[in-house]
Specification:
This protein is mainly alpha-helical and 99 residues long. It has one domain (3-93). Helix content is 74%, strand content 0%. Helix 1 packs antiparallel against helix 4, helix 2 (25-41) packs antiparallel against helix 3 (50-67) and helix 3 (50-67) packs antiparallel against helix 4 (74-93). The longest helix has 20 residues, at 74-93. The radius of gyration is 14 Å and the shape is globular.
């Protein structure tokens, strides 16, 4: 079992939920809260995690929708998604064999 890979897979699935409903403030609020909680769970030595980055994006996007402000650049979450999928691929091919 590769816990880090599983964590990245979860992050990818959360971004996929966002891609399914990018303009739904309720979904964005939920994703923001989930990512905030997971950032605290996976926090190590006060270092930023992928969860912090996802929380920042979803929270900014939620606030922008709620207040009618300019939304954050979609490329931010797209780049993060690419980084996450690359980490999943790497960890999947470089993990110890399953017993």
């Amino acid at each position: 079992m590769n816990k880090q890979r599983d964590e990245y897979i979860t992050a990818r699935e959360i971004i996929d939920l966002y891609y399914d409903m990018p303009d739904d403030a309720g979904v964005l609020e939920s994703l923001s809260r989930i990512c905030f909680s997971l950032a605290r769970v996976f926090e190590v030595d006060d270092k930023r995690t992928v969860w912090d980055d996802m929380f920042d994006y979803f929270d900014q996007d939620y606030i922008a929708i709620e207040r009618g402000l300019e939304r954050p650049d979609r490329q931010i979450i797209d780049k993060l998604y690419i980084q996450i999928t690359s980490r999943i691929e790497y960890l999947s091919t470089h993990s110890a064999p399953q017993k």
